Amino acid sequence: MKKNFSFLLLLTILIETLITSCKHDEQIFLVFNSPTIDLVSGTSLIYKDTILQTNQGFLIQINAKADSGLVLKNFVVTRLFNDSLKTELDSVLNTNQCSALLTFHSQAVTGTETWKFKITDNKENTCTKNVNITTISMPFILEFINDSGYIYNDSFLENDESFMAGIIASVNSNSIYKLCRFRINRIFNDISVNEIDTVIDTKIFTYTGDFFTKHELGMENWIFYIEDNNEQKDSINFKIYTEINDPMPNEFFGEIWNALGENPFIWDLVNNTSRLYSDNDSVKDMINSTTEYDTEPYFFVNGWYSANGTRFKLLELNSFDYDNPSYSSAVDAYSGSTIPSTFTWSVEEDNIYIAKLRNMEEYIAIKIISVEKTTDDNLDKIEFSYKKR
Q: Across the strands, what pairs with 381?
């Protein structure tokens, strides 16, 4: 009987242990559901992979919820672009559910970025949603109207002369943006005036206008600006040179000598005089380029360079009437396809150059009278004449 009691007691203890063990297992393996996060769909909302313009603003709306009995503790938004991770939002929460409407901007450069939206509850359970946004460049178009009768490039006109000018501008048909501002700026003698400054709201814009040149002589810079509501801007321009008397009646004569000799080898084309090496570079338009390394028999380079931005363009033979030059023809000759330079080489008698002085809108014509090359550094020289308006 004692044995049976011991057996029953042992059996009872074992059953209780098993029951207690099952209860503990129930507590250890109790699992809560992860929180949820949804990107709300809508015509003005980003909720899936999409394509946007660079630097474009966009909206994302999220709805997030924790499991019953839990609370949301943290909401984080990150963006990954070219292996660079950036946190856009890191917010502390203490609620079972939340909703938020968020505003962001796409990258300013083209490419694909991954946006991650992550919610975490007080049990460290998480849920994430990703959106890939590809940014593309969709610049607008801005062009002059180049029909007959319109000014659309640099031109010479008389003072008080009327002229027409116009532009056509448009944004990409796939862009969500519109053109929002048009402006015409006129600069004369460093004085800037807005001829037109107007607000617009369209994807395609055309403008034509009638204008008059200044009564005073000089150069007018006409700049046409356009802007869209994504803060993109562009401009195009032309210059108008107004003249009453177009000739270049003023003629001067100069000479530069071998830089290795004792005579003046620098010339000032503005003040029409020779200069010393010790003078400021700003007045050195023509400097003989001979150095001690130049070879025999003459040890003289028949050319020059400028120290102040003056540029020279060699013209083709018989392409310019130096005896009866006009200022407009000088500017036209300088503006051709050949690129002007601050250096000249192998100057010869009767060569004709057009010079643009010191990065200013001022042009002169130069004709080489003679080139003297000797074995004496004090006798080598280049003689020339030049005409101004």
A: 257, 372
